[in-house]
Write a structure and sequence with these properties.
The chain has seven helices and no strands. The protein has 161 residues and is mostly helical. The two termini are 18 Å apart.
Length: 161
């Protein structure tokens, strides 16, 4: 079976739907870190159920499964908002949502919240949750994000070819 970027964005949408069903209706205030971890796992496992055949591969239980499943979701999230916001804008917004700095700066969150960028604000919130979930399993989140950005670009180039 040939997998297209349309398939990948459909799966990311399923993960976003699972995230949204459990997340607070309003983006502000941002959920606490422990809640973001829970929401990130919910989103990742929704993706895993859509993309993996074996039940034992559909849960995030350790660093390896977190890197694989959350890493895929990061890549597919960048594809989901392609043409609306850049991966860097999405990542900056997710970082602002996770920040504990005071005063709170929401410049990137505002960028992805523009009406023309929807559903990028929710995708950024899901990405923030996924980052926290990956960190909770000891993953190299910086490396995962870098790989996901590169992977999304490769997937787009492959489909154009």
């Amino acid at each position: 079976m040939y997998v297209t970027n349309g398939d990948r964005t459909h799966w990311a949408t399923q993960a976003l739907d699972a995230f949204t069903a459990e997340a607070p209706a309003s983006l502000l205030p941002f959920p606490a870190q422990t809640e973001r971890v829970r929401l990130g796992i919910i989103a990742a496992e929704a993706l895993a159920r859509a993309t993996r055949w074996h039940a034992d591969e559909q849960t995030v239980t350790d660093e390896e499964s977190a890197e694989e499943i959350i890493g895929d979701l990061m890549s597919y999230s960048f594809l989901l908002v392609d043409g609306q916001v850049t991966p860097d804008q999405l990542t900056r917004a997710a970082d602002e949502m996770r920040s504990t700095d005071y005063p709170v700066m929401l410049t990137a969150v505002c960028e992805v919240s523009a009406p023309s960028a929807q559903p990028a604000d929710r995708v950024a919130a899901m990405l923030a949750a996924c980052i926290d979930a990956a960190e909770s399993f000891g993953c190299d989140v910086t490396g995962m994000l870098d790989y996901a950005k590169q992977d999304a670009e490769i997937l787009k180039a492959d489909e154009r070819a």
